[in-house]
Amino acid sequence: MGNTVFRRLSFLIAACEAEEWLPGLISKLLGQDHANEIEVVLASDDGVDLRTRLPSDPRLVHCPPAFRTGPAAARTRALVAASGSHVVQMDADDDVSDGFVEAVISALKVTPAVALRTVYVRGGEEVKRFQSPTLELGSLLDFYGSVICAAPRNWIRLYPAAIAEDVVASIAFLHRAGGRLPVVDADYRVRLHPHSFCAQNACSFTSAYRSGVVRAGWLAQEVGCPGIEAALIRMYRSRIAMSRAFDAFLLGGGEGDYHDFVQQHQNHPVMPA
Questions:
Q1: Is residue 156 assigned to a domain?
Q2: pLDDT tier, 259 (very low <50, low <70, confident <90, very high otherwise)
Q3: Domain identity same for 214 and 248
Q4: Does 161 lie in the same domain as 42?
Q5: Cα-to-chain-centroid distance, residue 69
Q6: CB neighbours (10 Å) of residue 195?
């Protein structure tokens, strides 16, 4: 696909019960250098009109509030409302490093798309970091987490209603870029906490990942990138193995957080998918 000239970067934020984190994230994004070249598109998914909770700023774009439509639908509403030439998704409880906006925009002015340096943090302490200077399918799957990408708006049609829809989007962006993306040297920080999606829903992941394998062809069509079907099957199968191991751990009386379990076991064999 041809290159898209950079004009504006749209941050797509799906927000559900995010008032503890969202104001700080908005303030940080809008307060950084090059923030005149961004917009923040907010898709409330808990029925709250965020215009009543956040400062008025022309760089904030508010989608009409919705209620419990799910992260994929909320991200898609933000995508539809975005006016930027390029987009990047964010979760409302995540964070970024100082200089993040400038680093991403500077990179997008010389290359069509980039991956973000994902760092998982808990209580302010780093848990794991994506280390590679480039993102490829193998390194994405080995990381066993989300590695968010900033890419042209027309590289994705929507965010599909599926588990790990953020990873599906990254795989689509990778495919559009020819299988490899440079990683920006600025941190995108994923906060791990008891109210996160993974912490609350990990017991349902095995069936959801299996559904992803069955629906991989449809999902690829939904995002507008039919060439990624095999990559999606590979991704979901790799996650089924880990999820089944976590299920067995819980059934055996184990206690603990899903992310802790993954961190302890991702470099060791788990049961096959």
A1: yes
A2: confident
A3: yes
A4: yes
A5: 17
A6: 11
